[in-house]
Amino acid sequence: MTDETQQAQAKRREYFEKMEAQLKTWEAELNKWDVKAQAAEADARATLEKNTVELRRNLAQARERLDKAQASSEVAWGDMRSGFEQAWTNVSAAWKKAASRFDETDKPS
């Protein structure tokens, strides 16, 4: 294996570790929000639970995309990277949007 190949593999591994860390961060936030939703009053609980369902769906999509990317060959990864990054950006934006709605709902009136 050449140095160039090893460096490319190391960069890819580092990239996926960063994405994995982001997923774990989102998961931890979502678990906190689940607890808050359960403690909320009935009217707010429905809204909070709806938001957590959306966030879980976003998290599952991000996990699926990351798993596919990690399973790809080095050559395939080179071909699919820009598409993956765009999809990840979209999932991240959807996460932020849903999370901001959760935070708005979570604030006292």
Low-pLDDT residue intervals, each spanning 5 or more residues: none
Pattern of helices and strands: HHH
Mean residue pLDDT: 83
Radius of gyration: 18 Å
**N/C terminus separation:** 61 Å
> Which percent range fits the helix content?
over 70%
Counted up, domains total 1
Strand content: under 5%
User: How many DSSP E strands?
Assistant: 0
Shape: elongated
Question: Biggest β-sheet, characterized?
Answer: none
User: Structural class, please?
Assistant: mainly alpha
Tell me what you see in this structure.
The protein is an all-alpha fold. It has one domain. It is 92% helix and 0% strand. It contains three helices and no strands. The chain has helices at 3-39, 42-71, 74-106.
